[in-house]
Automatic annotation (TrEMBL):
This is Dimethylsulfoxide reductase subunit B. Keywords: 4Fe-4S, Electron transport, Iron, Iron-sulfur, Metal-binding, Repeat, Transport. Residues 4-33, 91-120 form the 4Fe-4S ferredoxin-type domain. The gene is dmsB. Pfam families: Fer4 (PF00037), Fer4_11 (PF13247). It comes from Lentibacillus cibarius.
């Protein structure tokens, strides 16, 4: 099996959310359902020195994330109906809509908040890595929309060979929980 995954260049991401919009449009998702999300982190403050000048130590960065198609997906382990499963051919984690009963156990067990409940359908939905586009030789929506080329999708072995193996940054859960297929080029302010 060739496991697919994501490379996210967090150092390059400008937080424009073009990836979020492209994903939403491609999947025709309703308000509140976001397979891809961009989180904004800000910390630090301004302090006044003895001369009345303000000094800042503000740190600010973004993180674009969806499902990481994990090696040990807690969503799959905790689905009572086997609706959530990992494809043998490429390791992509998908939901069988015919089997999903909308119990949301997968959502509660995913440390990344990836499964997205669709109220209209009464079912869980999620990122499927745009496998329909990949099968046609096209690129996934988020990757194609990013104006600064901060997202790359491909075989995770190749992504790790090119970019390293960092898969957790400040603000993300430890990678030991699910072993995500994710490589991040960490923003300088997001190092642990
Ligand atoms: S990120 Fe969450 S939903 Fe995606 S495979 Fe991992 S545990 Fe499952
Ligand atoms: S909501 Fe659907 S996919 Fe998620 S655990 Fe329940 S049955 Fe499985």
């Amino acid at each position: 099996m060739t496991q697919l995954g994501f490379y996210i260049d967090q150092a390059r991401c400008i937080g424009c959310e073009a990836c979020v919009i492209a994903c939403k449009d491609k999947n025709d998702n309703p308000v509140g359902v976001n397979f891809r999300r961009v989180y904004s982190f800000e910390e630090g403050s301004f302090t006044e020195d003895k001369n009345g000048s303000f000094i800042q130590n503000i740190q600010s960065y973004f993180l674009s994330i969806s499902c990481n198609h994990c090696d040990e997906p807690k969503c799959v382990e905790n689905c009572p109906t086997t609706a959530m499963f990992k494809r043998e051919e490429d390791g992509v984690v998908v939901v069988d809509q015919d089997k999903c009963v909308g119990c949301r156990y997968c959502e509660w067990n995913c440390p990344y908040g990836a499964p997205q409940y669709n109220e209209e359908l009464g079912k869980m939905t999620k990122c499927d890595l745009c496998i329909d586009l990949l099968e046609k030789g096209e690129r996934p929506a988020c990757e194609g929309a990013c104006p600064v080329r901060a997202i790359e999708i491909g075989p995770i072995d190749e992504l790790r060979a090119k970019y390293g193996n960092v898969s957790e940054v400040k603000g993300l859960p430890t990678a030991s929980i699910t072993k995500p297929n994710l490589v991040i080029n960490t923003h300088k302010d997001a190092s642990e």
